[in-house]
Specification:
Elements: H1 10-47, H2 63-66, E1 68-74, E2 77-82, H3 89-103, E3 111-117, H4 122-127, H5 134-138, H6 140-144
Antiparallel strand pairs: 1-2, 1-3
Length: 151
Amino acid sequence: MISIEADFSFKELEDDMQSELDKWFDALAQKLMQTGKNITDQAIAKAKGAPFTGMGFGNITYNLRSSIGCGLVVFGDIKEDYFPFGKGDVGQQHGRELMAKVATEISKDDIGLIFVAGEKYGVFVQQKGYDVTDMSWISYEKLIGWEQSNG
């Protein structure tokens, strides 16, 4: 009979497995956040210009544009947020408030990405035919690499 003896302990094995899981989780979180930043930048870039140019909804107070952002939620806590447009402090505040509210709806056992336009009138602007966030959000699955195949 062959006798095999491990040259490691179960604690070492468990620690190694946890270390690999942590690396995987960190990579996933980084990819989610980078994708969130990309779609946020995309949405903000489309907002530039005045409505009469057909290129964006324009800016009067800059609050809608500055309320567009994203955040990474890990186990119920917002670990990182991204609101890159500096004008319109009220907009950023409203974006962060909406993000905090949405974060409470994510399970404490999950990781998630939140993408918001925090000004309430963003829906009105969207209904007028201007793209506030919709098309940027639609591109999310492609950017993250989770496209579903049709076969």
